Amino acid sequence: MTKINKVLITGITGFVGSHLADYILASFPKVQVLGLARWRSPVGNIKHILDKITLEYGDLTDLPSLLAVISRQRPDAIFHLAAQSYVPYSFNAPVATLNANVIGSCNLLEAVKQLKSAGNYDPVIHICSSSEVYGQVREDEVPIKESNPFRPASPYAVSKVGEDMLAFQYWLSWQIKTIRTRMFTHTGPRRGEVFATSTFARQIAAIEAGLNPPVVKVGNLDSVRTFLDVRDAVKAYWLLVEKCPAGEVYNIGGTETMTVGDMLNKLLKLSKTKGIKVEVDPARLRPSDVTLQIPCIDKFVAATGWQPEIKFDQTLEDLLDYWRDYFRREKP
After folding, report:
1. How many whole angstroms separate alpha carbon 113 and alpha carbon 71?
2. Order of strands, edge to edge, in the sheet holding 77-80?
């Protein structure tokens, strides 16, 4: 079991990074939490813990800044969560997506490699890949195992294949202690408004606040997803660096499977406004889509004993309440 006294979270100002910081601070108060942030990163997700963490400023596309931060702080574990993570945007900006996710990850690994070769420094590094690497799987391939072929269906997915394989290569070639995860669909409070669960919840909350007409605009509702609460996800990430061996890869995901349309119906039932209509917005449809994502998490459960604890109905209620609170604060 890895002894962890200090962690560095890239992407700490984001959705998962902020929840991971919350979890570590609440569960392991003696662990020092550092966050890597760009100077212009919004801190709304972490404003409630700014006095409990240390923000280090740098950029994944700038190797010297990473070397400076890591050599000065020397964290025992690095959770690499920062990424361009919005799949539709990757079709419009593939180079920016590849630069952030592949080159940025390579710079991080290279910084650790250089510091390791120069002295006694050998951290555990969690590399956050994605279920998107599997692409469109066949029905006889679900639940999806870690051995399933890669069929990336977007520039984002291609970038995550590159990040995933880079982490494996740095382990094979230089014994940099990377552990990879392929996280399936996860959501909860603070989820970015461009993602399906959150954009639906946001629209419903805006309707309830009288700011939008009673119509929810949607994309493809037939895709099948297995949903996980982000607060269960970050517990899994901690167990990963604490218990799992370097060089391995694990699927992580929930146990509640449904179509995106079924998920939307759950949200609509939670709404205080009845009779909300659903309308397909062509702009929300992807050029190529991944419509079947059901994970096999047996390998990770066997390694850590982890199990999801938060029911998806609770996740959706908390997400809807998050956007209700937002419109109570921001309503003109």
Report:
1. 11
2. 54-57, 32-37, 6-10, 77-80, 124-130, 177-183, 249-252
Q: What is the DSSP letter of 255?
A: S
* Single-letter code of the amino acid located at 206: A
Contact between residue 84 and residue 38 where contact means Cβ atoms under 8 Å apart: no
Q: How many CB atoms lie within 10 A of CB 33?
A: 23
Using alpha carbons, select from 97, 114, 112 the residue that is nearest to residue 162.
97
Asked whether 157 and 86 are in contact (CB, 8 A), the reply is: no
Residue 173: both structure tokens together: 């070639």
Cβ(262)–Cβ(206) under 8 Å? no
How far, in whole angstroms, is CA 119 from its chain's centroid? Answer: 32
Domains of the chain (ranges; CATH) run: 6-187+228-252 (3.40.50.720), 196-225+256-293+310-330 (3.90.25.10)
Beta strand extents in 29-139 (DSSP E only): 32-37, 54-57, 77-80, 124-130
For residue 291 the two structure tokens come to 């419509």
What is the pTM for the complete model shown?
Answer: 0.96
Quote the CA–CA distance of 102 and 98 in Å, as a whole number. 5
Q: What is the pLDDT of residues 121-157, one digit of tens each?
A: 999 999 999 999 999 999 999 999 999 999 999 999 9
Q: Which of 211, 219, 215 is nearest to 195 (CA)?
A: 219
- 271-292 per-position pLDDT tens digit: 999 999 999 988 887 787 788 9
Cis peptide before 295 (omega within 30 of 0): no
Contact 160, 129 (CB under 8 A): yes
